[in-house]
Amino acid sequence: MTDIPHLTVVNHPLVQHKLTLMREKDTPTAVFRQLLREISQFLAYEVTRNLEMETKRIETPIQPMDAPTLAGRKLALISILRAGNGLLDGMLELIPSARVGFVGLYRDEETLQPVQYYFKVPDALDERMVIAVDPMLATGNSSVAAIDLLKKAGAKNIRFLCLLAAPEGVARMKEAHPDVPIVTASVDSHLNDNGYIVPGLGDAGDRMFGTK
Ligand SMILES: O=P(O)(O)OC[C@H]1O[C@H](OP(=O)(O)OP(=O)(O)O)[C@H](O)[C@@H]1O
Ligand SMILES: O=c1cc[nH]c(=O)[nH]1
Ligand SMILES: [Mg+2]
């Protein structure tokens, strides 16, 4: 059960400005990585907007009060490797107590099907809000596969956070996982014949890590 919409596009001016810088093909690797880290914190703010709260008795220098605090077992952040790590670091700065998991997937360039190579997630996933992160939602094959694996591992309350989405990927996620809200900075125009997001920003992992 969730009370946020299936799709949230964060169109805050600072996010959109930083995203434009990231899209530019000549933006250097170090700047690209730093911008992704910054945007991840705005996206994290949205995706955690209605986290469950409880109150705790504290004393301010003036008087005691019942103050809001995050409730119970909290979050698991799941990075979809490799590019997900570019979102993870900034999010952990905001939510240092989150547990962290990794799903290793790469997209076969011919078939556009995901190939799994790693899976390690925190315990008690069923008691946590699980936020899967990957900068790119293109065909949706990778995110659907990652969320299939997380559900198999027990996750029940899952959200998906990405930087850029294609309409095709959003539709695929809605069909396969209608219970998983998506938070993104943009839904772009379409996918090209190679499965890349148009206009997009190219290959997020390669741009972030300086490969290729
Ligand atoms: O929606 P899809 O069509 O599945 O495409 C999106 C996936 O492709 C990219 O990963 P890639 O396979 O390039 O791996 P990487 O993170 O190691 O670069 C991206 O980070 C997503 O995981
Ligand atoms: O445009 C795209 C599509 C998939 N993966 C990327 O990194 N970029
Ligand atoms: Mg890649």
TrEMBL record:
One annotated GO molecular function: uracil phosphoribosyltransferase activity
CC per GO annotation: cytoplasm
Domain Phosphoribosyltransferase: 9-211
Annotated uracil binding sites: I197, G202, D203, A204
Involved pathway(s): Pyrimidine metabolism; UMP biosynthesis via salvage pathway; UMP from uracil: step 1/1
Pfam families: UPRTase
Record-given protein name: Uracil phosphoribosyltransferase
Gene name per UniProt: upp
